[in-house]
Amino acid sequence: MKKSNNAAAAPSQGIIRPTAISRNRLWPKIRQNYELYLFILPAVLLYLVFKYYPMYGVQIAFKDFRASKGIWGSEWVGLEHFQRFFEAYNFWPIMENTLLLSVYSLVFSFPVPILVALMLNQMMAKRYKKFVQTVIYAPHFISTVVLIGMLNVFLSPNSGLVNHVIAFFGGDPILFMADEGWFRPLYVLSGIWQETGFATIIYLAALAGVNPELHEAAIMDGASKWKRVKHVDIPSILPTIIILMVLAVGNIMSIGFEKAYLMQSDLNYGTSNIIPTYVYELGIQKAQYSFSAAIGLFNSIINVVLLVTVNRLAKRLTETSLW
Amino acid sequence: MNALFRRKSKGDLTFDIANYTLLTIGMLLILYPLYFVFIASFSDPNMIYSGEIWLLPKGLTLDGYERIFADATIWIGYGNSLLYAVVGTVISVTVTLLAAYPLARRDFIGRGLFMWFFMFTMFFGGGLIPTYLLIKDLNMINTIWALVIPGAGSVFNIIIVRTFFQSTIPDEMREAAFIDGCTNTRFFFSMVIQLSKPIIAVMVLYHVVGFWNGFFDAMIYLNEESKYPLQLVLRNILVQNQVNSSMMIDVESYAAKLRVTELIKYGVIIIASLPLLILYPFLQRYFVKGVMIGSIKG
């Protein structure tokens, strides 16, 4: 009804500037759907306060923040905090720790779910497959605290299962959780243990979408299972793999805080001190707000640049992209 | 069909055997630690210490559980976690559903703009410190609100729900209802919500698990032990090795204390995971569904 009114009204007014036309058409629609704006309002307010206001507050990274003066009243110091961080004795170790932990996680964890999904997809015994899936999805629901608790009990030097096995084969107990050298392997392996199963879901969904005729044709041509996995399954899920790869590479500097923090101790600090834990330590524990906000901002900027670059690269190379 | 079966060559047979063997080994590697925690939680701690427990619990005892049940902090944590999970889930799921619906409507003017407004926060944020200072300025420190309000309605969830609405609520249905004089509000509550039970289940479970398992927000925003959620209580026991001394009053020697501590750790893992274990059949089904919807356009 309203639409036809507008259409009738527009020509009668003669020549109208484009903005006026669109405004004429927009307002009735907006008014008609005013409830939708009320629906979205709570989320918009929450985002303004808890997401956008902190972006405004990030200016303390360029200020000498004093709680008594507030964000606005504190003095500008320019890039002083950034410079201090770049020149700090622990700048390179922290960067190295953050990057290596991320890269190792990516390189070793990324391919595993793909392999497992391809294997599960070839499993013809339905009930057994279902059972395997039920088991391997389970660790996803374990909390990080419990996961690290389990690492602690299993790797305990005098009572842990792993050291019992080592002792059984005549080895000496290893102080896994207190050893710098073991931090990264343990971080990555426990991640694989916890997330592999759940990460297969997305690949299994992609595999379920593979045209069965392709497989039938391949069978008729005498292709073995191995060949069908290689020449039918893998090419079919390649777009999914690429998208997830882009996401993973883009997030390489946004490694999570929780797990590293819970695994951290004075004894493995040399490898476990990464940007997020350092920001927490300086900011929340030592109240050096401006300095730690600067480190956090530095990290966010790298993230944005990485994500945009990787996405652009993927777009050019494969015509698959995130946006 | 018969031809297909006869064609099972030697190579395919080897493939199948290798495939089943490897997957079974992998499955056992995931299952065994979980199983071990379970049997160790009611075994004699001396036998855990000497490494005698492999497949079956030995020296059955409920000592660990008795000590845990007698300790108030764990139950207070349990209660707090439950409260935070319920309140947080209700708030966040409501915000998510309400925000996702307009974004699913093609005739919603400003849809693209709002989408960008939400999406932008996925790529850039103020970070931990400015957020912390804000929560502090709002006097939300040490209240439940610091845990349940700031993260309500995540972009990721809004997009999943929006995708679901777009694919299950046909435009024609809305147009028909509007011709009959139905308003947006009525349509949303009496049609959209009714048709969206699966996605609501996905959202509720996502949130319940998230709140139940989270500890970071509680760690930075809460400073009174009586408000700690379960995961924070667990962290003290499992990671920092601080078992409440009231759990150990009758244990004398240091060595014995160490052993009882181990036993308590195993028991606590089981007790903390119990609610999710009970929910697991639903969790599995709906989380898988969530991943599928999310993967359509993420």
TL;DR of this structure?
Chain A contains 17 helices and two strands. By secondary structure, chain A is mostly helical. In chain A, strands 1-2 form a two-stranded antiparallel ribbon.
Structure in words:
The complex is a heterodimer of chains A (323) and B (298). By secondary structure, chain A is mainly alpha-helical. Chain A has 17 helices and two strands. The two termini of chain A are 36 Å apart. Mean pLDDT of chain A is 87; it is low at 1-16. With 298 residues, chain B is mostly helical. Chain B has a domain at 83-197: MetI-like (MetI-like fold, Orthogonal Bundle). Chain B has 15 helices and no strands. The interface between A and B is large, with 90 and 95 residues.
Strand content of chain A: under 5%
Between the first and last Cα atoms of chain A, what is the distance in angstroms?
36 Å
Mean pLDDT of chain B: 88
**Class computed from helices, strands and strand pairing of chain A:** mainly alpha
Helix and strand content put the structural class of chain B at mainly alpha
Draw up the topology in text.
The complex is a heterodimer of chains A (323) and B (298).
Chain A: H1 2-12, H2 18-32, H3 34-57, E1 63-64, H4 70-73, E2 75-76, H5 80-87, H6 91-109, H7 111-121, H8 126-137, H9 144-155, H10 161-168, H11 180-208, H12 212-220, H13 225-250, H14 258-263, H15 269-272, H16 275-285, H17 289-318
Antiparallel strand pairs in A: 1-2
Chain B: H1 2-6, H2 10-40, H3 45-49, H4 63-70, H5 72-104, H6 111-123, H7 128-137, H8 145-148, H9 155-168, H10 171-179, H11 184-195, H12 197-213, H13 216-221, H14 230-239, H15 254-296
Helix pairs in contact in B: 4-15, 5-9, 5-12, 5-14, 9-15, 12-15, 14-15
Considering the chains and any ligands shown, give keywords for the structure:
heterodimer; A: about 325 residues; mainly alpha; MetI-like fold; 2 domains; two-stranded antiparallel sheet; B: about 300 residues; globular
